[in-house]
């Protein structure tokens, strides 16, 4: 049983190709069944996210399995199979397993170490199981990949350092206030960055959200997402006294928060800390505001420094993650290699047993009436000859199974002894999809 993968991501194909190769959850049952109907495919999992589509499959023939997946993707998307091959990447055997482990660990994502991909891998596997599309090898592979993803995050903390501006703002707030529970935020501006930052703050415990924007209706709409309050833009200074955190990101060409107005609000705060995060370019907040007592002011450059530092930390964690992946990969390959050769070894021993029994019966018949002791001696001799004859090829096959060429030695042994492997003939009953796998027609 061989494992292969064919995929497309943001690095290999433009969005117009990726969207045609994506799969929705409600289409997966039919798609998995269709892919499994190819004679070369013995089990499959489809991982489809906003930035990648990957098909993992079990097959007994590498080339046939890859061609089946390419043909399936071509038929699904309507894209010529030659273009499908050009914009996809293919992994086989050892590389497939390493790739999946790296994906689950967040090492192959646009944002290094991102957390969401592990849940997406788990979801894809669970759906494939629900629809009966997997087999024993794929089940073990994906269960191990999920374990690897968890282990990498636990032991390296690769996902603990914020690498986006909005997350960095939250990280700074948590450093200043320790606990954000019960804190309130004043959001100035109702754009995407303001929304993302507010969303992250609320997710981390901020309970009060006040939104002010030049377009009052946009402020109302954003505030509604957080059960917050919208205030008129010309009244925002009245609410500085209430807020613990101010997030500002407008498109203004001048300061929208001025020193004198903030100073008046600070006088009424009775020493309470105020954190201001200015994400705008040009800046919204007069830099002199940061000199007021009890006020901490960060601008976009401060946030970028946090992001750069954290990205460097993630890159360090990624080095440790790669070591974990190699360790887990070796363990999985040992298990998988044994699964490859066990049926062949069993078939070889069965062939030896059949020959032994046949020749033993013939010899005992020729010997005629002999004692029970002599029968045991002859039987022991036959057992010893067969066992010693098979010992070396069995031992060598187990050793070769741990190398990339293991499946080739297994095939040679099967052909030399004309072994019939249970399960391999079962694929003959599968009807291949009509059409030429090489051309997609």
Automatic annotation (TrEMBL):
It comes from Desulfofundulus thermosubterraneus DSM 16057. NADP(+) binds at residues 189-194. GO terms for biological process: protoporphyrinogen IX biosynthetic process from glutamate. It comes from the Bacteria. GO terms for molecular function: glutamyl-tRNA reductase activity; NADP binding. The gene is hemA. Belongs to the glutamyl-tRNA reductase family. PROSITE patterns: GLUTR. It catalyses: (S)-4-amino-5-oxopentanoate + tRNA(Glu) + NADP(+) = L-glutamyl-tRNA(Glu) + NADPH + H(+). HAMAP family: Glu_tRNA_reductase. The active site is at residue 50. The record marks 99 as: Important for activity. Catalyzes the NADPH-dependent reduction of glutamyl-tRNA(Glu) to glutamate 1-semialdehyde (GSA). CDD domains: NAD_bind_Glutamyl_tRNA_reduct (cd05213). Pathway: Porphyrin-containing compound metabolism; protoporphyrin-IX biosynthesis; 5-aminolevulinate from L-glutamyl-tRNA(Glu): step 1/2. Substrate binds at residues 49-52, 109, 114-116, 120. Possesses an unusual extended V-shaped dimeric structure with each monomer consisting of three distinct domains arranged along a curved 'spinal' alpha-helix. The N-terminal catalytic domain specifically recognizes the glutamate moiety of the substrate. The second domain is the NADPH-binding domain, and the third C-terminal domain is responsible for dimerization. InterPro entries: 4pyrrol_synth_GluRdtase (IPR000343), 4pyrrol_synth_GluRdtase_dimer (IPR015896), 4pyrrol_synth_GluRdtase_N (IPR015895), GluRdtase_CS (IPR018214), GluRdtase_dimer_dom_sf (IPR036453), GluRdtase_N_sf (IPR036343), NAD(P)-bd_dom_sf (IPR036291), Shikm_DH/Glu-tRNA_Rdtase (IPR006151). Residues 6-156 form the Glutamyl-tRNA reductase N-terminal domain. This is Glutamyl-tRNA reductase. It is an enzyme of class 1 (oxidoreductase).
